Amino acid sequence: MSTDVTPERVLAEIPTRLRIGDGWREATGGRTFPVANPADGTDLASVADATAADGLAALDAAVAAQASWAATPPRERGEILRRAFEEIHARREELALLITLEMGKPLADAYAEIDYGAEFFRWFAEEAVRIDGGYTVSPNGRGRILVMRQPVGPSLLVTPWNFPLAMATRKIGPALAAGCTVVVKPAEQTPLTTLALAAILEGCGVPAGVVNVVTTSDPAAVVGSLLKDSRLRKLSFTGSTEVGRLLLSQAAGGVLRTSMELGGNAPFLVFADADLDAAVEGALLAKLRNMGEACTAANRFYVQRPVAAEFADRLAKRMAELRVAPGLAEGSQIGPLIDEAGRQKVGTLVDDAVRKGARVLTGGAPLDGPGYFYPPTVLADVPGTADLLTQEIFGPVAPVLAFDTEQEAVALANTTEYGLVAYLYTRDLGRALRTAEALETGMIGLNQGVVSNAAAPFGGVKQSGLGREGGRVGIDEYLETKYVAIAV
Ligand code: NAD
């Protein structure tokens, strides 16, 4: 990292006010809330604490800008996104530092998030000019069917704290490409990266009112009043299934278009014929990327009995070697969890599994000292009644269980209300395809531990959500279809 990119300098340059319309403003009443560093619990900055009225002011700005943004040539919309892609890369050192400071992930993971997150702007810059429609002769030959696709309109984008840059670009990219204006409501734990992104977009030529950002410590009030406003046309939410359900019920009042990227409980299946080295390396990625604080994190490891003990031992050995340290420390591979509540949840789930008979192969207890550190943990012989098999762990804990047959593995994998992603390791092509077809998830990592890719449709089934982000279909979430019946 360059010597002039220091936490002090980067934090001093972050806008901490609300981005509404053509400027930056304090929250009504001037209230602010603090943003903490999970590596030591100290405050990094204070940001404006928006009220419901501020949220509505942001919607006013988005509504005012909607018509002219929709009429902006698609190429121009794409070029703005493309410039923002370049600018994120040009400023990657500052952004990585900021992500690590407010979210805790190791700097190397922050750089990986920047590469992934920026890609949504490049991808949707290219998609902006490919919005198409259709022209068909009616089956009876007497009419014509013209199909056009138009921006859905002002959209509310609510994002989580675990990927503060990528979860924002994954929504802003397709929305802007489609011609929608947005109000972004970042998570209260990590508002700084979104504010930095708004400044970048402004510098790249996004017109006033097209991207508005409201930071708040009271998301229920701000989001709740926006969802009641009939000028809002779309909600795109990424976060927990619990909050997603609540917002879906609130969105029902206005029959709002919704996209929901919710929680996961990913199974990781290893068959006896798999390349075990590759499976262990894939497991490390699927489990420990972002300290396990990812909706795609492998939550349950099902390993065929002949290789189950060896897999668990090898995984434990590799996980025990990793360096747990503040994300800015040299060589850090595992940073702190987001806050004490997150760490306590992980600890409670591990204690429950151990009380019910699981064996700790490595880790198993929180680390002393400042910050919310929990070490990589492998649990073997986990009983089927353990709570961590049904709940999202959101921490660096890998429960390993043995299975005997392919049918049993699929049944175990599908025993969850979630359906975001599954990982599958086998060298048998027939088994790979059969299993991939039978797994009830929106995504599958076949012999690979990471599925996220801006060019692919990301999303879940069952209670993991509705809709897809990224890929060719990602822009559809922000487009309405209109058809004109033509008499000829
Ligand atoms: P969360 O549901 O607590 O919060 C997500 C967002 O919703 C935040 O912006 C928060 O301020 C807001 N929010 C919280 N309560 C609200 C309320 N009552 N009304 C309106 N808004 C409210 O989730 P989190 O803890 O920030 O993120 C972790 C969760 O996100 C995990 O469950 C994870 O699986 C999920 N996630 C899913 C994906 C995906 O693509 N499927 C990606 C990342 C994270």
Automatic annotation (TrEMBL):
Q: What residues does the Aldehyde dehydrogenase domain cover?
A: 24-484
Q: Which PROSITE patterns match?
A: ALDEHYDE_DEHYDR_CYS (PS00070), ALDEHYDE_DEHYDR_GLU (PS00687)
What highest taxon heads this organism's lineage?
Bacteria
The keyword Cytoplasm belongs to this UniProt entry's keyword annotation: no
List, in alphabetical order, the GO biological process terms annotated in this UniProt record. Answer: gamma-aminobutyric acid catabolic process
UniProt keyword terms in alphabetical order: Oxidoreductase
What molecular function terms (GO) are annotated for this protein? succinate-semialdehyde dehydrogenase (NAD+) activity
Q: Where is the active site?
A: 261
Spell out the InterPro entries in the cross-references: Ald_DH/histidinol_DH, Ald_DH_C, Ald_DH_CS_CYS, Ald_DH_CS_GLU, Ald_DH_N, Aldehyde_DH_dom, Aldehyde_DH_Superfamily
Pfam families to which the protein is assigned, alphabetical: Aldedh
Per the similarity annotation, which family is this? Belongs to the aldehyde dehydrogenase family.
What is the protein name for this chain?
Succinate semialdehyde dehydrogenase
What organism, scientifically named, is this protein from? Streptosporangium subroseum
The organism that produces this protein has a lineage beginning with: Bacteria, Bacillati, Actinomycetota, Actinomycetes, Streptosporangiales
